[in-house]
Amino acid sequence: MRILIKGGRIIDPANRIDAQKDIYIEEGIIKRVSSNIKINKPNVKVIDARGKIVTPGLIDMHTHLREPGREDEETIASGTRAACKGGFTSICCMPNTQPVTDNQAQVELILSKAQKEGWVNVYPIGAITKGLQGEEMSPIGELKKAGVAGITDDGKTVYNSLIMRRALEYSKMFKLPVISHCEDTDLSAEGLINEGYISTILGMRGIPRQAEEVIVSRDIQLAEMTGGHLHIAHVSTEGSVGMIRRAKRMNIKITAETAPHYFTLTDEAVKTYNTNTKMNPPLRTKKDVQAIKRGLQDGTIDCIASDHAPHLEDEKNQEYELAPFGIIGLETMLPLIITELVDKKVLTLREAIKKLTVNPARILGLNKGTLSPGADADITIMDIKANRKIETFESQSNNSPFIGYTLKGFAVCTIVGGRICMAEGELVAG
Amino acid sequence: MRLKDRNLLGIETLSPEEIKLILDTAVPFKEIFTRSVKKVPTLRGKTVVNLFYEPSTRTRTSFELAEKRLSADVLNISVNTSSIVKGESLIDTAKTIEAMKADFVVIRHSMAGAPHLLARTINASIINAGDGMHEHPTQALLDLFTIRDKKGKIENQNVVIVGDILHSRVARSNIWALTKMGAKVTVVGPVTLIPAHIENLKVKVAYKLDDVLPNADVIYVLRVQRERQKQHLFPSLREYSELYGVDMDRLKKCKKDVIVMHPGPMNRGIEISSEVADSNFSVITEQVTNGIAIRMAVLYLLAGGAEKVEEGE
Fold it and tell me: How far is CA B179 from CA A320, B182, B200, in A?
């Protein structure tokens, strides 16, 4: 299939391009990027991108696809549909499935299912420890060979500092980032929301910021000691941002992500007992939100990831304490970034795109996130002026705190490996 | 004047005028108790469900008596004897109650926000009879009623709330209620049992009970739960009792007309000595009596409150 994308504003941070250009795609590969391309070949699909932004396909490095094990909440098919709708061409799926992605067979299962049923590229993330039990290292070399892009025990911290040290050392041989969910569960003590004024008046057990920061601090020291690549998942506090900033200045090999809810919402949102405000780490306070924004501005936080965590309506429609942690995010991430960061001048559009493309690609060692000729034709076209009310989702779950929000900036076309999977905001089967 | 909301989920959202209205409405209801026939037909034909997910003697019987004295049809559902033990969700229990056309649901639940979930799900008026560590509004209202009754006014009274503020819904509701009505509130207890940013609620925080007792007009003693010791919140009940137990020695340092309150059930010899609990300073049994009148007033006002309190037969 031949595709010519005409007249769009190309933003390709990897190549420092921000200009009006055309892109020509043939056989799933980007062939040319230049002004006024004319192709004298048959069967060229021309996409009019005038007034739109054309970027490398967006990458979400933190998604829970729930398959295998909880196909009632999400599947590889439905999760990748949500990704495609949200403008993502590549996503990384977390290993806390049932069974856990801690061996070659599980990685192959996900990859083969994604090959058959997936709408976008899927990169599994392997477990650091077998069964996420925190006791024995997974076969990290085998996982790498099978195709994982990183390792994590996401949802849990590797509590044993020695095992974390070994993981950071051992993963160096395979150039895999160790993605850390930072939480001292003795300190979070079955808390439900951020510890502070709101937890006090709502009478809910609090999770102090230090539950996150104690482990961020430990892991930074282990990263310094080992030289391993530490990636901090879903940064939510001012203190974490500060520590990561200092670690980067010390040239420790550390990268970090945050999720859109940590720069848009505070624990004030919990006051209605809406269980879609329950996630881990919890929503923090205004000063944390400001610190996250500053961290995004100065590059302390390298990328933005969704932490897409689907849950059934029945599971969420319970007492706050009983409802599971987590919200979906693939279909609201781009508009939240445009609305909250780009429109409010926290980040330029180019900086924002960088955190969704080339940065996660580099962290994970993926040959993605660029519009260079010869690269896979993974492309996202977005209309950053479009307004829409958030109502329904392609995801099988709808646990979003942003339902009813009118947001700005949506993907209108997603091209994965040269195939148009979403056009004019609608998924295209094929 | 009427209440703005059709539910009573907490004190936080009530205005001082609404609180005063409830207190004033409770006065004639209390008078009914002195009659030989302690019943009025106000809620005749209305159905009230008491849905108790936590064990409770005082609050449940107080609500039940209030409902019966208002002539309502009363249904008690408690956790041990219902489908709840079979794992039925709150939402499904709520829908069952809805199908029975209840007009009021009085809910006691161990988790904060459960009454709010119920209020979002069904049409009946919801009364929060205590949700986790969040609020226990009728307790605070009966406490205000008792203070006003004993002291003549609530404004400018120095109220010392002593004990486990962190886990106490009674403390939270009382802090909202007392500060809205102009009382001066001091919370006192071990640092580990004082919640974060409590001072934002316009209360003073103290750690030494003996420092704050001489100025107190009201000492409000909270129940301390034995399991808190296991959560590393204080080393032993003995130490707790020495630092925060209200006994006669401590009362001697107080104003002559100080009153001692407790929401019950008491741990005699731990947070309060028997001598104090049974002394003339204690208004604990009056709190119980006033509780019925307050709950009658709340039910009456939530039912619309248009009709006058009818005369007894």
Answer: 28, 5, 12
Distance from CA of B196 to the nearest CA of A (A): 5
Cis peptide before A401 (omega within 30 of 0): no
- Max distance between CA atoms of chain B, in angstroms, equals 57
Name the residue with tokens 């996250």: A292
What pLDDT was estimated at residue B79? Answer: 77
Separation of alpha carbons A226 and A423, rounded Å: 46
Could you give phi then psi for residue A427, rounded to 5 degrees?
-70, 140
User: Quick one: average pLDDT of B188-195?
Assistant: 96
Contact list, B132 vs chain A (CB under 8 Å)? 203-204, 321
Q: In degrees, to the nearest 5, what angle opens at C-alpha A141 toward C-alphas A136 and A147?
A: 115
Examine the pLDDT at B135 and tell me if it is beyond 60. Answer: yes
Average pLDDT for B125-154: 98
| Cα–Cα distance for residue pair A296/A340, rounded to 1 Å | 12
For residue B202, which residues of chain A lie inside 8 Å, CB to CB?
Answer: none
Question: Could B197 and A197 be called an inter-chain contact, meaning their C-beta atoms sit closer than 8 Å?
Answer: yes
Give percent of chain B above pLDDT 90: 87
Over range B190-196, report the average pLDDT. Answer: 95
Question: Which one is catalytic: A288, A302, A307, A378?
Answer: A307
Report the distance separating Cα A129 and Cα A36, nearest Å. Answer: 52
Quote the mean pLDDT of chain A: 97
Q: Is the pLDDT of residue B309 over 50?
A: no
User: Which residues neighbour A383 within 8 Å (Cβ) at sequence distance 6 or greater?
Assistant: A51, A52, A53, A409, A410, A412
Place of tokens 């709010």: B116
Give me A233's structure tokens. 């998942």
Active site annotation includes A102: no
* Cβ contacts of A272 on chain B, cutoff 8 Å: 116
Q: Residues near B106 by Cβ (< 8 Å), separated by ≥ 6?
A: B48, B49, B50, B51, B63, B127, B129
What is the arithmetic mean of pLDDT over B256-272? 96
Task: Please give the model's pTM, rounded to 2 decimal places.
Answer: 0.94
Residue B310 has pLDDT above 60, yes or no: no
Average pLDDT rounded to a whole number, residues B36-57: 93
Query: In sequence order, what DSSP letters do the residues of B136-190 get, joined into one string?
Result: -HHHHHHHHHHHHHHHS--TT-EEEEES--TT-HHHHHHHHHHHHTT-EEEEES-
Q: What is the mean pLDDT of residues A341-365?
A: 98
Residue bearing tokens 């080393």: B235
Give the span between the Cα atoms of B156 and B148, in whole angstroms. Answer: 12
